[in-house]
Write a structure and sequence with these properties.
By secondary structure, the chain is α/β, with parallel strands linked by helices. It has 13 helices and 20 strands. A hairpin with a 2-residue loop joins strand 19 and strand 20. The protein is globular and about 75 Å long. It starts with a strand and ends in a 12-residue tail after the last helix. The protein binds adenosine-5'-diphosphate, aspartic acid and magnesium ion.
Length: about 400
């Protein structure tokens, strides 16, 4: 008898029929004698709808109230799911984050899980009840509701699997597994059967939203093997696991894109020591994570700086930068929401040169202008105009021959 945590994403619970189908799938496993813990997202589109509603009330929504609103989507699906199970004659109980208790810090809208109390879940499991937990939410020490950041239900699932020492953690979604790139925009994308935690961390950090990055970090830390698979088929998906000798070592494991960033440019700043500190300190104090930064020196001791921030923090970041701009005597501040970061990722890149050059040539051939570049040992990222995202992803996937499972190594 195994303890299984299964998480179903928004598209898997998008309407009452889908919820019922998923409930049946879980009940089948329960009927085989397994102890089932289910983690659910909100119905597809709901969380976005809430964000939209909130911005109609306040340009920068109050984070505490935002969490009260955002967490409501998952409350709906867990209740409906438990009803579906009961309707079919089995027992289920829905639990919210504060009932479980999933304790978090108080960073509203992107809280981190500090501790999970598994006692209540275990009690219900001992009674043969299917436990249905609302994903994406937790509670602070003061009893305030928090959410874990977009895509956070994956993190709830893996954290529960770790806390319960589950035998399996399965993430059910609308694709068959983890692919070499988003299969919804590149038909030649290839499903990866097994991927290491580290490679998955890289893919997730650069935009492969099939798994939330913090869920991968937790899975690695607590050695939870994660099976990513489709809610709509029985096909074996992708296993995210520790590295072993049997794994294919790929030069480039995938192409990712991230449309959730924005650029901010601050122009003609006096090029003096301390300018960057003055600019970035208040941004980081506001909990905004800056990703890429470039600085160009102009003639006459002036400099321009461009950097990226998450799109969801854009308004707040612009407000801060505009305040600092006066202080550091910058000439102007401009921002753009219409950008995408496209990346190629692969631990095999460490030992090969020429990968970045291939990427630049591919984008040039397609007439795509590169706005920013950043590289590390195992990835190259370029910021481009958002409208070229699909074109860039497909061209790069083809150029690196990722549809093949034995890629050619460049000379
Ligand atoms: P869920 O609502 O189930 O959590 P998400 O929309 O968060 O689903 O994640 C699944 C989506 O991730 C897929 O529909 C796909 O478009 C996207 N995706 C991006 N990159 C990849 C990738 N490398 N492999 C698989 N899916 C990917
Ligand atoms: N409903 C939340 C979101 O859309 C959490 C999740 O689906 O994982 O981001
Ligand atoms: Mg998701």
């Amino acid at each position: 008898m195994a303890l299984i945590v299964q998480k179903f994403g928004g598209t898997s619970v998008a309407d009452p029929d889908k919820i019922r189908n998923v409930a049946r799938r879980v009940m089948k496993k329960a009927a085989e004698g397994n102890r089932m813990v289910v983690v659910l997202s909100a119905m597809a589109g709901e969380t976005n709808r809430f964000v939209d509603l909130a911005t109609q009330m306040q340009a920068i929504p109050d984070p505490r109230e935002m969490d009260v609103l955002l967490s409501s989507g998952e409350q709906v699906t867990v209740a409906l799911f438990a009803m579906a199970v009961k309707d079919e004659g089995m027992n289920a109980v829905s639990l919210l984050g504060d009932q479980v208790k999933i304790s978090t810090d108080n960073t509203h809208t992107k809280a981190r899980i500090k501790e999970i109390n598994a006692d209540l879940i275990k009690q219900h499991l001992d009674n043969g009840t299917i436990v249905v937990v609302a994903g994406f939410q937790g509670v602070t020490a003061d009893g305030d509701i928090t959410t874990l950041g977009r895509g956070g239900s994956d993190t709830t699932a893996v954290a529960l699997a770790a806390a319960l020492k589950a035998d399996q953690c399965e993430i059910f979604t609308d694709v068959d597994g983890v692919y070499t790139t988003d299969p919804n925009i590149c038909s030649r994308a290839r499903k990866i059967d097994r991927i290491t935690y580290d490679e998955m961390l890289e893919l997730a950090s650069l935009g492969a939203k099939v798994l939330d990055i913090r869920s991968v970090g937790l899975a690695k830390r607590f050695k939870v093997p994660v099976h990513v698979r489709s809610s709509f088929t029985e096909t074996e998906g992708t296993w995210v696991v520790e590295e072993d000798d049997t794994m294919e070592s790929m030069l480039v494991s995938g192409v990712t894109y991230n449309k959730n960033e924005a650029t901010i440019t601050i122009s003609r700043v006096p090029d003096t020591p301390g300018t960057a500190a003055k600019l970035f300190t208040p941004i980081s104090e506001a909990g905004i994570v800056v990703d890429m930064i470039i600085q160009n020196t102009r003639a006459g001791d002036l400099t321009d700086m461009t950097f990226t921030v998450p799109r969801s923090d854009y308004e707040r970041a612009m407000r801060i930068v505009n305040e600092v701009a006066g202080e550091i005597k910058a000439e102007s501040v401009n921002g753009s929401l219409g950008i995408t970061k496209v990346s190629i990722v692969g631990v095999g890149m460490r030992n090969h040169s020429g990968i970045a050059t291939t990427l630049f040539n591919v984008l040039a051939r397609e007439g795509i202008n590169i706005l920013m570049i950043s590289t590390s040992e195992i990835k190259v990222s370029c910021v481009i105009e958002e409208k070229y995202t699909e074109l860039a992803v497909r061209a790069l996937h083809d150029a690196f021959e990722l549809e093949r499972d034995n890629q050619p190594v460049p000379e």
